Amino acid sequence: MTSRTMDGCIRCGACVRACPVLAQEGREAFPGPRRLVIEAPRFDPHLKALKGALYMCTTCGRCEEVCPSRLPLPAALVRMRSIVLEGADRPAGQLRMIRAIEDSGRAVVPPSSAQSYPSEGDLVFFPGCIAEGRLPGSVAAALRLLEASGARPYVPSAWSCCGSPLEKIGATDQLRKVEANNKAVLKTSRLVTACPGCTAQLRAAYGKDAWHIIEHLHAAKISEERFDTSAPPMKIALHRPCHLARVVGPHTIDMVKDILESVPGVKVIEHRDQDDCCGGGGGVAASRPEVVEKMARRKLRSAKDAGADIMIAPCPFCVVNLGRVGTMPVEDLTTFLAGRLDPGQN
User: Fold this and answer.
1) Is 220 helix (H, G, I), strand (E, B) or coil?
2) What is the model's pTM?
3) Alpha carbon separation from 269 to 218, 247, 256, 305, 322 (Å, rounded)
4) How far is the C-alpha of 65 from the C-alpha of 72, rounded, in Å?
5) What is the tens place of the pLDDT at every residue in 44-101?
6) What's the number of CA atoms in the CB half-sphere (13 Å) around residue 111?
7) Per-position b or e across 211-229, b if 16+ CB within 10 A of its CB
8) Tell me, what's the pLDDT at 314?
9) Residue 147 to residue 277: CA distance in whole angstroms
10) Is 120 exposed, middle or buried (0-12, 13-18, 19+ CB in 10 A)?
11) N or C: which end of the chain has fewer CB within 10 A?
């Protein structure tokens, strides 16, 4: 770890109080960000013993958000994983993901009936592994929305996983391979994604001017006279994905609310856990699914108690994770918006 991370801590405990996994699982199961990335690196003999706890961090960024020293705690924890877990036995879920990337270039092997994408246009769209493999309708929806905004989106051939899932689990060798492939494939500097993890990774690791689709649609004023006025009314709980709100930027939440509130019949309702992590990030679902399920269940219970008809999430990872619980409908933002487009826009 960097000296800034270890020496900059003032022991205020803000990160410990803010950590959602620690609050849910307790200190004995998960000692929290300060113990893992500030105190543990000073005592090498204890690092291997913390392997299980390292798997439990969702890298939600809440600890960094509340840290008065603004220490990069999630990034430090990811580096810890690459050190501690190198050569170690991995959970079966992580091994499946690594094999899928080695075999197909994707964290989720695309279905055999994978859709074809436009190969020419004026705006690059990066589909992302989870959307393509688990929510293929959301990729088609995103392309329709971009077309409705006036763009001609296309998908470059031979794209690979952006590398974010590999980075989160410390799989550095595989990470270098997918980055090399994408750097050769993604020729333009400007592109759009519908996955916050992809957006952040393409910015940080590739130096791309990557926009989340929310940013593009808001700038293109997709909210103006694009939607069907005859659609039935609906109360929506807006999930605020951690990597969207805290990494891509908090402005995105205001943007998506602007867009949703302009859709006829839609009401965005507030609920008590709306800013909480759903548990879907950081590779935790591949190693500790029981931890993730509890976090997602609590989030959906909060939305249901507030009277929401559906939860909308602008993140494929979050949609898949929340959807596993099954206590209320969960839909990707792109699918929902495309379904509400005026028929003339489809």
Assistant:
1) coil
2) 0.90
3) 20, 24, 13, 11, 18
4) 9
5) 555 667 778 888 999 999 999 999 999 999 988 888 887 776 655 777 888 889 999 9
6) 12
7) bbbbbbbbebebbeebbbe
8) 97
9) 31
10) exposed
11) C
